[in-house]
Model the fold of this input.
Amino acid sequence: MDFTAVLADVARYLDGRDRPWALVGGVGLAALGIARTTLDLDLVVEADVQGELVGWLEREGYETLHRSAGYSNHLHTDPRRGRVDVVYVDAATALQLFPDCREVDGPGGLRVRVPRPEHLAAMKVTAMKSDPARRFQDLADIRALALLPGVDRQEIRRAFSRNALEALWDELAATL
Done:
């Protein structure tokens, strides 16, 4: 997948409509200096952009594999365009998430917005709760995020508590 080209296209589309977005998932982690293998591009946007974004992706040749209120997954037949996954957040979450995003160098030197590590960890906790098969990879990612300088580990712990996963946090915290 050509992460640089796909990200540039999606960013141009969203920025052109003055819609906030941020890079999450494996590419978002890489932008924060946490290297791991990923095969897709993950973004977070406000929920009210879902219809127009999904429509645009489909016009760009992506097939929508799944669509729910909180997520959509899209795959292009051209391997260079690859897979794009989108997380949709409500207005209240957007007000907490987007103003705190930092701008960093992403794929190909593109300037990208990435949520605070604590927000990325919270998103991974939520994803892990809804799909337990994600547990090991997401815990490894959360651990790497928790080890970044200046990260508020208590905020990450609260994300585990909100999802009734305190025991998992205790296990993870013992390795930090």
Notes: Helices lie at 3-16, 25-31, 50-59, 91-97, 117-130, 135-146, 153-162, 166-173. The longest strand covers residues 40-46. The chain has two domains: 1-115, 116-176.
